[in-house]
Amino acid sequence: MFLALKEIKKEKGRFLLIISIVVLISYLVYFLLGLAYGLALDNTTAIYRLQAKKIILADGSNKNIQSSLIELETLQQELKGLDYSLINLGRSSAYINGQKDDRHTISLVIIGSESNAKIAPTILEGRAVMQDNEAVASISLKHEKDLAIGDTIKIAMNEKEFKVVGFTSEAKYNTSSVIYTDLENASAASMIFKADDTKEPIKILKRVSAAVIHTDEPITLTSNLEIISIQDFINSIPGYQAQILTFGLMIIFLVLISSIVLGVFLYIITIQKKQTFGIMKVQGISSSYISKSVLLQTLIVSVSGLFIGISLTYITQLFLPVRVPFKIDLLFIIAITLLMIFTTILGALFSVKSVAKVDPLEVLN
User: Fold this and answer.
1) Which sequence spans correspond to the domains of the chain?
2) Of 171, 186, 211, 362, which has fewest CB within 10 angstroms of its CB?
3) C-alpha distances in angstroms, 19 versus 47, 189, 193, 299?
């Protein structure tokens, strides 16, 4: 410990350079981790809020709820006696208060459910849906688009209007914000066809997009329906897997690059001190003691750089716009930090190996 700290104090310039490199690389790693986690949440929060174990879709829908339509009567017969909720899901562009400029145009997912269903949203502000053409919006629309209770949302494809009566927890599906309404108003027929009189609600409730099951009990289906786990359904969301894999590979490669860069710097410093190590060995200082000093220096440098990198990431989060999908998860931060420390220590083992090979007699000669 004494030798490691003394060496760092003596070579402040070199070690500050190494720490600065660790800071920059770790900052980039943590920032990408925050973006990856934020994008993952933007794809899935609405699904996790369904509190479902399984989901039933139409056979041939390719695990895509937007391609699924199921006869309501058939579904109710199949699921009789089970704990389930019916769901309709539609997607469209929409205009806040009928204004069609860029600021008030949004990409929207509409989720419909029965008022007494388990998947009905928890109200944070305002009230629940009680009448036709009312909706509860994700709080993200309030933060990102300044949506307020009493505002209207006009669906672009059929000019149908929903009045916002409340806000619920942040919910997004496939990066689009969600509004919740009743089962009828979110049906496929209601989303596609325009009524002659837009003030009259379209009452079509013969088909639904899917049903979510709230228990793990085994289910046997006789109709042309497909039952899949919620995790399989999430993994099938268009673009979700590609985003996760892309960011995951970038983070892994940056972790490896960080360990290699730090290992190379420490190896060069160790080689430059070859004569010093030889003299220390002549004086009776063991190779294991010197090696421990090198490993401790590596640990101090990496932990210092990583701590600064984490701090910069948290500070950056405070200044990012609300629309940026950036979320920090403590468990992921801890896992990546431990991984980077571990790989850095592995890189430092090359320096330790070079210490063990130092021959005191050769150095003296």
Assistant:
1) 2-44+241-364, 54-215
2) 362
3) 42, 60, 62, 11
